[in-house]
Amino acid sequence: MNDFDHAPPPPRQPPSANAPLTSLRVTNVPLSATWASVGTASWIVGVDNLSFWRTFALAQDGLSATTAASTVGLGIFLVLLFAAVLRPFVVGKAGILLLCTLLVTSASVSHYLDAWGVLFDKGLVRNMIETDTREVRELLSFPAFVDVFWRGILPAALLWFVGIRRAEWKRSTIHTALLGVVAAGVAGALLATSYGTLASTFRNHRELRFQLVPTNYINAVYGYLKGEDVTSGAILPIAPDARRTPSLSRPLVLVLIVGETARAANFSLGGYMRETNAALANRDILYFQNVVSCGTDTATSLPCMFSGLGAEEFSVRKARERENALDVLLRTGISVQWLDNNSGCKGVCARVPTLQMPTSGIDGLCGEDACQDEILARSLEERLKEVKQDTAIVLHQMGSHGPAYYRRYPAPGKFQPTCDTNRIQSCDRQALVNTYDNTIEYTSQNIARIVEAARARAPAMDIAVLYISDHGESLGERNIYLHGLPPMLAPSEQTHVPMLAWLPVQTQDRLKLPISCLASVAGQKYSHDNLFSTLLGFFGVATAAYRADLDVLAIARASPACGNASPRLTLK
Fold first, then answer.
1. What is the pTM of this model?
2. Contacts 24+ apart (CB under 8 A), 553-561
3. Which contacts of 69-73 are long-range, i.e. CB under 8 A and separated by 24 or more positions?
4. Among residues of the chain, what percentage have pLDDT more than 70?
5. Residue 72 CB: number of other CB atoms within 10 A?
6. Three-class secondary structure of residue 239 per DSSP
């Protein structure tokens, strides 16, 4: 049988030479549904999987007949497999719409895989859903449109124009089965001849499954939907036994700065060769060098660090169904405020007073639907004037959020030349690093402003400042950009984050914690898991949920430099 569906239609008679010109029209012969499925699968496997094939090729020990045969065989198997899965659904206009949607979606995903080295998993889906329009605009560009146009929109338009012939359900079933049988045969041949090559490649390069289009984004969406089931709406209380003795005299205040996309590798306080933290010099800043984030994206790390679940037990669903550290502080009589200059708190501040910073209207600070982080320091100054009781103020920065790093600081920036585009992969590597370093340098300036605002209020309150970033960032190392890789595959640039603290003498006395004790443990290994108990420990909250072995302040008091036994918080 020469055609998969049915015999071709009889040839059309050429128009008569005497026919009127209006009767001449362009005609097209629709494709069979089977060939349309095979063609779409071939295009996606061959054109939309450049990152997948590049990783697969680099994983091999040179070019040989065996590796070439394995590569070709794998490509044929994927085409047949995808075509077999598609074929039952390719029926009529709905079938054409399905294939066109698949082509455009695959091209869009492939562009960001190829351009930025991102991997598509459910965490990335969560970030896409929870992002705002400003962040979406920063991801768009004319070159991105051109790429998606030729890889997705153009073939989809051609397929829509040509159309698909209808086929009887018996033929559809036969052709689907035939594709499946042939795919199984190719798979058997691959296992018999190339099992060792394929097994070692996929075992040692787990990123391949996050690069294979379209299964990567289909699995990611399914995983997100499966893991994000709608909750009952009830919030599980945590630390119901939490109690504390409120201050009788001066308020105890903590200013917690949650950084965005700041990686420790570019902090000069941690040994980076450039002076990106010059603004923090001579300000009694204590830097913690070995801190690891809970996740590689804001939607994971932000709720994780406040949840008290720990990275091993954390899930976004669990965090949404329970209280967090801010709820516990609020319930024990501490005033809690969340000031946000980012795209939201990802549910962390859902039950505490929250102030979203404006996105325009402030000369010199705002532009293109976003304000720079100095606006947080200004807002903090006003809030500190109103403090009358023990208070925790969280400042959520825009920080170094990419890819438009050049928008995160006042131009021109300390380090030149810069990469003034969101097409960061097209920039010279040094220009890209310069631009990112400018964001860190500006973050340092803002931390310095916040410290000075706190210092100015120190005569009236016992105040401290703590800064910690939510996750890091890749700047083209190993051809990876931005962040959000699955934690098991993420490079240290995305997980090693900076943390620093400022405590004036009065606060050290109040906490019974000389800065020398804290400095003696600053080089130890910490993570976002430490934040929950550290917040409770700072305010003296007594609860079974508190763990002294995770409270950085308690760890410092128990250090040999302080000569104390392991402390336990108790009520007076």
1. 0.78
2. 553/511, 553/513, 553/518, 555/521, 555/524, 556/513, 556/517, 556/518, 556/520, 556/521, 557/512, 557/513, 557/517, 559/517, 559/520, 559/521, 560/520, 561/516, 561/517, 561/520, 561/521
3. 69/193, 69/194, 70/190, 70/193, 70/194, 70/197, 70/198, 73/186, 73/189, 73/190, 73/193, 73/194
4. 92
5. 10
6. coil
Hey, which bits of 470-551 come out as E strands? Answer: 474-475, 481-482, 496-502, 525-527
Residue type, position 168, single letter: E
pLDDT in tens, 360-387: 777 778 877 788 999 999 999 999 999 9
The C-alpha atoms of residue 209 and residue 389 are separated, in whole angstroms, by 52
Cβ atoms < 10 Å from Cβ of 153: 16
Task: Give the C-alpha distances (Å, rounded to integers) separating 357 from 190, 348, 375, 393, 394.
Answer: 57, 17, 7, 14, 13
| 442 contacts 400 by C-beta, under 8 angstroms | no
Residue-wise burial string across 267-302, b where 16 or more C-beta atoms lie within 10 A, e elsewhere: bbbbebebebbebbeebebbbbbebbbbbbbbbbbb
**For position 566, what pLDDT does the model report?**
44
What pLDDT is recorded for position 182?
Answer: 94
